[in-house]
Specification:
mainly alpha
């Protein structure tokens, strides 16, 4: 049977030995570094900011219009449960936004799931607030 090697030295020597073994593989650390992203020009930053404002204001207007529509058609939507009305508003505004963003010069095809959740949250939020204020 082979004898186990006994660690000799103080904790400082052991720490230095550990550091020496971890520094032997610098190529792994270099491979994990993220690639650098090219900085955007001033025109690209301006366009992104304008697009962000449009992506916020347009759903807000749609949600407000949906709130007024639900208030003025209250008798027609009264037999339906609230969650059916909400899902209808979400579906209708999703379809409207999907086809009207091209007229606003925004590429809706590049929207990810997070973007659609953001704009639909804005619609539902403004719809509920407007409808609630009108009902009171």
């Amino acid at each position: 049977m082979a004898k186990k090697e006994k660690k000799v030295g103080n904790k400082e020597d052991q720490r230095l030995a550990t550091l020496a073994t971890t520094q032997e593989k610098p190529s792994e650390k270099v491979a994990k570094l993220p690639t650098k992203v090219k900085p955007k020009s001033a025109a690209e930053r301006r366009k992104d900011r304008i697009d962000g404002i449009i992506k916020t204001v347009y759903p807000s207007i749609l949600g407000t219009v949906a709130g007024f529509a639900c208030y003025y058609t209250g008798a027609a939507i009264a037999p339906y449960p609230w969650h059916f009305v909400m899902l209808s508003v979400i579906l209708l505004t999703y379809v409207i936004q999907k086809y009207t963003y091209t007229f606003l010069k925004i590429d809706a095809a590049s929207f990810k799931t997070k973007d659609w959740f953001y704009v639909e949250f804005m619609v539902v939020d403004f719809w509920l607030v407007t409808w609630t204020l009108l009902l009171n």
